[in-house]
Design a protein that fits this description.
3-stranded antiparallel β-sheet, Alpha-Beta Plaits, 4 helices, alpha+beta, 260 residues
């Protein structure tokens, strides 16, 4: 399998937890839908076409990242009645490593070319959270590790450790006041290229902060001495899609190219 690894830096970023409405709490790492939208923006695809592109092959994805700070910002928005305000969490001074993998080398080359020459300005979250690509690399070797940190893992990692408790291996995990595992959207049904969407598939994912030692190994890649777990994005490939730029049909063109 071939992997396209993309190093990114941003001043700000926000990945809204879909379970929070009045308070826009941010996830600490970009979820799968954000990764799909990020790649789609580079290729010039609409949100719907971006999802279809990633459905054509059995993709594996992964993410590693750190932020230097987090803050809450007060936003005013128009609800077409009296107007209202919300609190929005924003991550500051961020470094992310996104991993896209598939057996199809042509698809990986398409992604690499798009990241070198993105069609649209790349953002992570809000339309003003511009992302700078630092480096793009291709990797083919995979490995396993019992130690995970600052990454995204498929499944409920705490429950996985409990399920393997009797295998005789040592482990070191932690709990926090914040949930570690979330059931997040991975697939939407779109009414149009840039239209209303509804969640039709979810996946349980664990957001790992400080390093944990598990009692069962996780597959991944080793990049610059960082282990990045990988997991399946979709299990059922669909019809092949050729990347082609599509223009928004709405007046709000910015911020439409990521699924966040």
């Amino acid at each position: 399998m071939k992997f396209c690894v993309v190093e990114i830096k941003t001043q700000t970023a926000t990945f809204r937890n879909p379970e929070f409405q009045n308070f826009h709490k941010s996830l600490l790492l970009p979820p799968p839908t954000t990764m799909v939208g990020f790649a789609g923006a580079a290729m010039g695809l609409s949100p719907k076409a971006s999802q279809e592109f990633f459905n054509q092959e059995a993709f594996k994805i992964g993410v590693f990242g750190k932020s230097q700070g987090i803050a809450k910002d007060l936003w005013k928005y128009n609800d077409f009645k009296n107007g209202s305000v919300i609190l929005k969490e924003i991550l500051f001074i961020n470094e992310f490593i996104l991993v896209y993998g598939t057996e199809n080398k042509e698809i990986i080359n398409t992604l690499q070319t798009a990241f070198y020459n993105p069609t649209y300005a790349l953002t992570l979250g809000n339309s003003d959270s511009l992302a700078k690509i630092i480096k793009i690399s291709l990797i083919s070797e995979t490995t396993e590790s019992y130690h995970l940190g600052h990454c995204l893992v498929e499944g409920n990692i705490i429950q996985d450790v409990k399920d393997n408790y009797d295998n005789g291996l040592d482990f070191s995990i932690y709990t926090s006041s914040e949930p570690i595992a979330y059931d997040l959207p991975t697939k939407f049904a779109y009414q149009s290229e840039y239209g209303i969407r509804n969640v039709i598939e979810r996946k349980t994912l664990s957001f790992i902060g400080e390093t944990m030692k598990l009692n069962h190994p996780k597959p991944g890649i080793l990049y610059q001495n960082k282990f990045i777990p990988i997991f399946n994005y979709q299990n059922h490939p669909k019809t092949k899609i050729t990347p082609k730029a599509t223009q928004p049909t709405t007046s709000d063109k910015q911020g439409q190219y990521q699924l966040f």
